[in-house]
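Below is a filled-in request sheet from our internal design queue. Each sheet records the structural input a requester submitted and the sequence that came back. We keep these sheets so that new team members can see what a complete request looks like end to end.

REQUESTER: design group, bay 2
PRIORITY: normal
MODE: inverse folding
CHAIN LENGTH: 107
BACKBONE (tokenized):
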């Protein structure tokens, strides 16, 4: 009596694809805000339609990356807590990172 196992080739192909995607992510040095915070993420987790709208509504003068980096952490956390489902900016970054990886991996 022979046992037939179906789907092994398909499973192997999917695993190889996941390995390739993971390797691609491993070498990536940086992710833009646009990639990390797509509109779908912002609409799902905040009071805004896009990351740009969120930044505009913050009231901070944000003309450059340097401007963003100079926002006092406590003030930015308060804004994020008030206008999103997150308690802090760090939490928002963590979840956005997890969702970014899941998208890139095809989950």
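RETURNED SEQUENCE:
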């Amino acid at each position: 009596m022979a046992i037939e196992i179906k789907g092994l080739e398909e499973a192997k192909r999917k695993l190889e694809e996941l390995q390739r995607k993971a390797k691609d992510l491993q070498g990536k040095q940086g992710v833009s805000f646009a990639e990390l915070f797509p509109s779908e993420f912002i609409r799902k987790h905040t009071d805004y339609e896009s990351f740009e709208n969120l930044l505009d509504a913050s009231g901070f003068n944000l003309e450059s990356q340097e401007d963003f980096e100079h926002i006092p952490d406590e003030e930015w956390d308060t804004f994020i807590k008030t206008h999103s489902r997150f308690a802090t900016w760090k939490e928002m970054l963590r979840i956005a990172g997890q969702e970014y990886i899941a998208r890139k991996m095809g989950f």
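SHEET NOTES:
- Residues 31-105 form one domain.
- The chain has one domain: 31-105.
FILED BY: M.R.
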